[in-house]
# Entry
Amino acid sequence: MSTTSTKPKKPVSLARIGMSSFVGTAMEWYDFFIYSTAAALVFNEVFFPEAEKVVGTMFAFMTFAAGYLARPLGAILLGHFGDRIGRKSVLILTLTTMGTATFLMGLMPTSAQIGVWAPILLVTLRILQGLAVGGEWGGAVLIATENAPEGKKTFYGSFAQMGSPAGLLFATAFFTILSDVTAPEVLVDWAWRIPFLFAGILVPIGLVIRLSVDDAPEFTEAARRQEKSSVPLLELLTHHWRGLVIGTGAFLGVFAIYYLLTTFVLTYATQTLGMTSAAVLPANIISAVAEAVGIVLGAWLAKKISARLVAVWSAVALTVWSFPAFALMGTAVPMNLYIAVAVAMIFVGTSYGVLAGEVAELFSPTARYTGIGLNYHLSGALGGGLAPLAATAILAASGTTTGVVWLCVGVGVIMTVCCLLLPKSNTAKIEPAADPITAG
# Structure
């Protein structure tokens, strides 16, 4: 008689799933943020030494933008496999790719050593980072929200969102310590490499965590019944185009204002206002803490009123705060800079924390990974990748931040309108038409 056990595998606890979502995204965002910090502070001298300072910084931000422009492609490519073969497998791939690319950046030769090949290699690795992050966020959100009980999807979706401020906090703290203990020329010469090389230690830790969780029953049951779309992108464009527009617009202001206040501000404060990097870098630490507080506050408020209303009022607040924020920063007083950034990042956090769960509800499970990934990363490419570059160009051309303020207002208005169009109920969905493209 066979003694093979048919006992079902014990389900992983929601606490472990939430922690896996948080830790994995924190590690990936750490990798992404150390690049943005290095691009603002040292890459103009390391990889574009022959250019004027402002021009070199713009070139550095172009390499920064390359990662953002690759993220929608990563969302399509890796989202396709996430919807086809499962969330867990893709999340393991994204973590490995991101960590490897970041580690190799720490070993990069400079332009003084290999000439033009240095920025070419840098952009190549940056694109790999972008592809990896493009597939990371959607899977991390879905691992949490698809396993969450009804009524708690917004709360569990916020675990993935907490990875962003945690990654920013860790990355900025690393660079702040390096700036304090090394001379500026040492930071430019070799010390900037240390945070990148540290990614080699983080990858094995992240893999252990990722391997401990499995795909949600909602997805595995659909896979068992062969209810998967053979081309998730085509399903999205055919049946979910409205969700793509709404979700992308809802995230647009979050990304644009976030990166203007964590990346562009580093350049503006040090190169235009004459503040030291030691005085400015704490603003990013304050940003991370304020955003984390905002995410928790947003998730709590969503239970009291609704996630949609939290997103709407956060968008309005970000739009209005653009004017006093840049006025405070323009004083070149560190405390005023910290206040301007902290208030803005609380509003960023309240919207960012609730949007993951809300936007996921715009799509069916068979195209959800691709859908929310495209929403997130299209808005990231437009708002995050291009906003610091556009702001730097505006500042160089006009010598003032007036145009930058109106840039913030413009994306804030778009964000507000799209948040108003989100489903009024946490469980409301834009239902697709019958999908004619299914796996046979």
Observations:
- The chain is about 80% helix and 0% strand.
- The radius of gyration is 21 Å.
- Residues 94 and 132 are 5 Å apart (CA to CA).
